[in-house]
Amino acid sequence: MRRNVVGLLSVVLLGYGGMLQAETGYVVDQLLIGVRAGTDAEDKLLQVLPSGERVEILGRDGEFTRIRSTGGTVGWVESAYLTDQRPAASLVVELQDRIARLTEQLAQSQESWQVSDGALVSESDVGVDDWLTGLTIREWLLSAGVALIAALVGFALGYFRRSKNQEKRLSGMRI
Hints:
3 domains
């Protein structure tokens, strides 16, 4: 009986545990390092620098590096906490600023392009639209008739010219 109760209790607790969702967390990338007066951990703490802080390297002594902070403090830090590459967090901030600037420039360019494009379209459309809407059916028919006559004249001239060339080639024989 005791086994059944323990088994039932285990199943209930395991089932209930499966219904709970675990929270997601992240390890922070903020690191604070101490700038000390000497290379010993017992030496006086002069300043605390956050990750990403730019420093000037003045010298090295084993596992320690002598630095000058942007605030002018000169002291020693563990070399393991220094790198010649900028941390990702500072690069992300810089890139986000750059993306914001480029997005703004793109929006301005698109806005000016649409205005320019609209101006060009409206300038070209105004003349053509006014001319087309101003024509009556009679004027359309007259224009079509003129175009038809011009086509017929062009065809006739081409035909007669071709006939003359053939006569010359065939020594005066008409075809």
